[in-house]
Each structure stands twice: as structure tokens, then as C-alpha cells.
Amino acid sequence: MKKRIPLPLSLPLGYLSVLGGWILYRLWRADPAKTLQEDANRHPKGVSWEREETFDGGTLRRVVEDGIERVTCIPRERRFETPLFFMHGMWHAAWCWEDWQKQLAAWGWESHAISLPGHGASPAQRSIQFCTLDYYLNFLRGEIARLPRKPVLIGHSMGGALTQWYLKYVGDDLPATVMVASWVSHSMLADNLLRYIRLDPAGLPLMLFHWDAAPMVRTPQVAARALLSPQALITPEELHARLVPESALVLFQHNPPFWKPPQNIRTPMLWVAGEADAFFSVEAMRRSAAHYNADFYLAPGAGHDVMMEPSAPDALRYIHTWLSERM
Questions:
Q1: What is the DSSP string of 76-143?
Q2: CA–CA gap between residue 230 and residue 227 (Å, rounded)
Q3: Superfamily of the domain at 7-324
Q4: Where along the chain do its domains lie?
Q5: Per residue in 267-300, pLDDT tens?
Q6: What is the pTM of this model?
Q7: In 37-67, which positions are buried (b, 16+ CB within 10 angstroms) versus exposed (e)?
Q8: Which CA distances in Å does 202 have to 195, 197, 205, 229?
Q9: d(Cα 85, Cα 156) in Å, to the nearest integer?
């Protein structure tokens, strides 16, 4: 007689089987080329919120227009014609770039940052569980197309993955790109899974059960272990209060067979890594930089949120110098 799986065990196994099938179905259906032919933004047109502030280096304008939060920083004295475009990562929004935007304005750079739908002040346009990288990419493509001049694209974490997807599916024709603690080039699971399980053994089961990535940053302490060093300039409570739910599909999509990094990228690239990044090892980030023939900078002692670390000013100065030599 065949042994039957006990009922308490069969229920979660059945759930995981159905979930696994649903993941494969959603990811096999995702077609970046087809997605990019669609009009991503279904939100009613118009400005729903606007605010402007001046500071020593220039003007910072925040607006929610056509359902997208846009933060534009105009320098008081412009030194560079090429604008910068910032793309946030998982759970974050345009707010994470504000300090860098202001400092770069003081150095003469115009910059733009957006919040993807469901992030920051941008209202969600579909359930977070159904958001994929190609869905987000279509918004990124549309926002860059609005600018009169192609920008330097600077992406943090998932924003770095979207930068790689942009180069592959939209165009390898940007003035430069900067990866800040970016997702690795080839496979999130191969380079990240075991490292993450050791960091937070409960995070993956909770993510699979709820089917979004919010459990990965479920408390201030859990979020800080993943994103910050102990010396970070922001407290775990301050950070956690600003984080939002995130898609889990995106984590699986940036892996074979759904993703293969482009070869022989022509766009100049700088890869900025955090020495104390809990998600990615320095070795994995160096390998990714080498694949794209990118220059590499290691921010001493920095966690995954490099922009919020004591070494952030030095990292930003390096980025500024690197870009200045190429613009």
C-alpha cells in the first residue's frame, strides 16, 4: 500500500505546487517586446499634486502628474547639458534620491527621479502581485522618452536591473549608466538565494505564502538587516515607515530562462557596490561589472542602501567625477 502524505503536509505542498505553476505561467507570458508596444500608463491625465522648494543649489519640484510622481532638481548654475535620471529599487520610491539630487544640483547637474506605480506618491495601477520587470520597464521607457535629451540612467537595486533591461530591450544608446548596489547581471537566485536565506530564514517562506515581497522588510529590524549597515544615517524605524509592498514576481524574472544579460554593451557603465551589502557579495558584484566591462567602485562599509550610509558622500563624489570625465 502506498503511503499517503499527511494532510497537514499536503496542504502547503499543494499550495506551493499551484503557486509554482502560477509563477511559471506569469513569467512565460511576459514578453518585453510586446509589453513595450503597449501604453503602460492607464491613469487619467492631469496634475493631482505639486510642490516646489528652493535650496542653496537650485530648485526641487515634486509633482504627481498622469499618476506618476516626478521629482525634478534644477541647478542654480548648470554645468552639464546631459540630465541624470534616477530609478529606485524594491520597496523604495523617488524619495531615496533626494539628498543626492540636491548635492548634484550644487555641482551643476539637472536630475529627475520617479516613483513607479504603487510606490511613493504614485498610485497603483495594477495589483502589486502582478507587476513584472517588463511592466515597470515600460514606465521607465516612457519617462525617459519625455526628456528632450537622453539622460544618464542611475539605478539602485531593482532599478539597476531595470537599467540592464533598458539596455537590452529599449536601447544601448545612453550617455552612461550607473549601477548602485544593483541586482547582479545573470541570476538573482544563483547569486542571492542562499545568502538571503542565511540572512532571514523566515523571509522566503513568508514571501511565498503572501506572494509579495513585503515580508522581506516586514519589521524595522528585518528591513535594517537587509538594507542598512549599523552606521547608517537613517534609523530602521525611519526607513521602514517609508517602504511599500513590492512584487515577488520580479525576483524570479531576473533569472534564466526568463532573463539573459546583453553582451558587448556600448554604453559606459559604473558599478557602485556596498562593502557591507547584505544581499550581494562583493565578488558577485565584481563579476557583474566585469560582464558589462564596467568600472567598479566599492563604497567602504556601506549596506545595500548606499545612499543612506556614512560613505555616501564619497561614493557620490566618485560618481560625479566619473560622469564629469565623460559628459
A1: SS---SS-EEEE--TT--GGGGHHHHHHHHHTT--EEEEE-TTSTTSPPSS-GGG--HHHHHHHHHHH
A2: 10
A3: Alpha/Beta hydrolase fold, catalytic domain (3.40.50.1820)
A4: 7-324
A5: 999 999 999 999 999 999 999 999 999 999 999 9
A6: 0.92
A7: eeebbebeeeeeeeeeeeeebbebbbbbebb
A8: 13, 8, 6, 20
A9: 11
